[in-house]
Amino acid sequence: MRHLLLLLLSVIGLAAAETKRCVFCEIVAGQREQAAVYRDDKVMAFMTIGPVNPGHVLVIPLVHADNYLEVQPEALGAMLAAAQRIGRALQLTDLNAEGIQLLMNTGRAAGQTVFHAHLHVIPRHTGDSGIEQKSEAPRPTMAELEAVAAKIRVKL
Ligand code: AMP
Ligand code: ZN
């Protein structure tokens, strides 16, 4: 009985450590700074810290799923609906998104680096090199990201 209890406690401990390691679960829990764009009962959206272009947003399910293939269908639908709202809003801001690119890298081989499913919503402009560009520019500050997030939020 005692062994069973110890086993149970270590499993719970491992599960807690696993959750703690996920940077996006920390964002969902409000434990990590982020520039928020949108939240409902299934998904949230915030500015990526490494934008391909200004206005680059990530939409994630609130419930952890490692990648696209693991997301529950209702959450997946909510992610797409949120991305549509955000895409429309992006076109109404002075970011002047001519095009919107949706991207979900699934698996390390496909370029996924954060293993909590996320949908990139990327403003695109004619002639830009988008996700292929190797930006030398320093990352935006949280204040700069928050300013862009505020522009998007008012157009949602
Ligand atoms: P991927 O390569 O598709 O897994 O994309 C991961 C995305 O998460 C990139 O756009 C990163 O800049 C972004 N990212 C990583 N850590 C954070 C964070 N703490 N807050 C916001 N975005 C993040
Ligand atoms: Zn997570």
How does this model look, in words?
This protein has 156 residues and is α+β, with helices and mostly antiparallel strands. The chain has one domain: HIT family, subunit A (2-Layer Sandwich). Helix content is 38%, strand content 16%. It is built from 4 helices and 5 strands, in the order H-H-E-E-E-H-E-E-H. It has helices at residues 2-21, 23-28, 73-92, 142-155, and strands spanning 36-39, 43-47, 57-61, 99-103, 119-124. It has a 5-stranded antiparallel β-sheet with strand order 1-2-3-5-4. Strand 1 and strand 2 form a beta hairpin. Helix 3 (73-92) packs across helix 4 (142-155). The longest helix has 20 residues, at 2-21. It starts with a helix and ends with a helix. Bound molecules: adenosine monophosphate and zinc ion (ZN). Residues 23, 32, 34, 48-50, 58, 105, 111-114 line the site of adenosine monophosphate.
Key traits:
single chain; 156 residues; alpha+beta; HIT family, subunit A; 5-stranded antiparallel beta sheet; 4 helices; 16% strand; globular; binds adenosine monophosphate; binds zinc ion
> What's the CATH architecture name?
2-Layer Sandwich
CATH fold node name: HIT family, subunit A
Q: How would you describe the shape?
A: globular
**CATH superfamily placement:** HIT-like
Largest sheet data: 5 strands, antiparallel
Topology order in helix (H) and strand (E) letters: HHEEEHEEH
Distance between the termini: 55 Å
Q: Fraction of residues in helices? A: 25-40%
Would you count the extended β strands for me? 5
The count of helical stretches stands at 4
Strand order of the largest sheet: 1-2-3-5-4
Ligands in the model, by name, code or SMILES, are: adenosine monophosphate, zinc ion
Name of the level-1 CATH class = Alpha Beta
What radius of gyration results from the CA coordinates?
Answer: 17 Å
Structural class: alpha+beta
Q: Detail the poorly predicted runs.
A: none
